[in-house]
Design a protein that fits this description.
homodimer, alpha+beta, Dna Ligase, domain 1, three-stranded mixed beta sheet, 6 helices, 38% helix, 22% strand, binds manganese (II) ion, binds zinc ion, DNA-binding
Chain lengths: 147, 147
DNA sequence: ATCATGATGCAACCACGTTGCAATAGAATT
DNA sequence: AATTCTATTGCAACGTGGTTGCATCATGAT
């Protein structure tokens, strides 16, 4: 049996080819953004991502432009959870699809929580000729309630 | 029959007493903000309001602080329609409560539609120690789909 | 190896809010 | 009416999220 390369290397190769498949050059910053999104569960803000990548010499504008490029390429999902900030997460059909599950955002601490799909049921009345892309709940989270 | 004063004067008196009733001092800038909101149909942004009032020497920070004060006093309703900007409008007590029913906002045309309460069911999983104040659906409305 | 063009870093900019502070002006009290 | 207390104001400065211009660099095609 052929010895498999380390998981991280396999990841890298997959990510790189995903980029090429989208006609995007495989650059170090771009790969770093994609990798970070891939190893993160849930939606991440630009600021958050910049915090993780700028120590490695990657500029925040570059991070932003890559988030845009990746979103437009369909590799990354961009969502506005209602807290005045764009969030990004891996657009992986076989996992955690961005628009598949509802989100809860706390109006006090602004924290965003991913909810299971079965947390919200939409009756047929919700559709009415429209298509629903996203479900957001706003409220006060447990932590803020006891504070 | 006693001659009524001009509508604008009546307005002023009502507005002033509304402020006093909320334990807010009736100042020229505050009255101006309230009046502008009262004579406007629909939701207005801070920038918009500032554009109208700064020619009269009212500072944008003052406009903002008054919008906050009036919102907290319940005289004005503050909403985030998902476009990263707060909108303000007169809080009309006899109109529907903002948080009582879910809303659908079209990501294309930004139009906001009120949904019946039974359009959305929240399972117990949605709560998890939090309280839900608002349910917002985003998507593409019928009009935008056929366009 | 050459080269065209996409991608990067940096600086500057914009919109929307927010904060600090000294000066001003409501309104309650005398 | 003058005094007093303190809410409110204007101005300046700051913060965050996002955008733009441009010279330089590096990918990947030839
Ligand atoms: Mn999520
Ligand atoms: Mn409504
Ligand atoms: Zn919270
Ligand atoms: Zn629409």
């Amino acid at each position: 049996m052929k010895r498999a390369s380390k998981p991280s290397e396999i990841d890298e190769a997959q990510l790189a080819s995903a980029l090429r498949g989208a006609h995007l050059r495989v650059t170090l910053p771009r790969l770093a953004v994609l990798r970070e999104l891939w190893r993160t569960a849930g939606a991440v803000s630009h600021a958050d991502l910049t915090g993780r990548l700028s120590p490695h010499g990657i500029d925040r504008v570059t991070v932003w432009r890559n988030l845009m490029a990746l979103s437009e390429a369909g590799l990354v999902a961009r969502t506005d959870l209602g807290d005045h900030t764009w969030r990004f997460e891996r657009a992986d059909p076989n996992a955690h699809a961005a628009d598949a599950h509802p989100h809860f955002v706390c109006v006090d601490c602004r924290k965003v929580t991913c909810l299971p799909d079965d947390a919200v049921f939409l009756s047929s009345a919700a559709a009415r000729g429209a298509i629903v892309l996203e479900v957001q709940l706003k409220g006060r989270c447990g932590a803020c309630l006891t504070r």
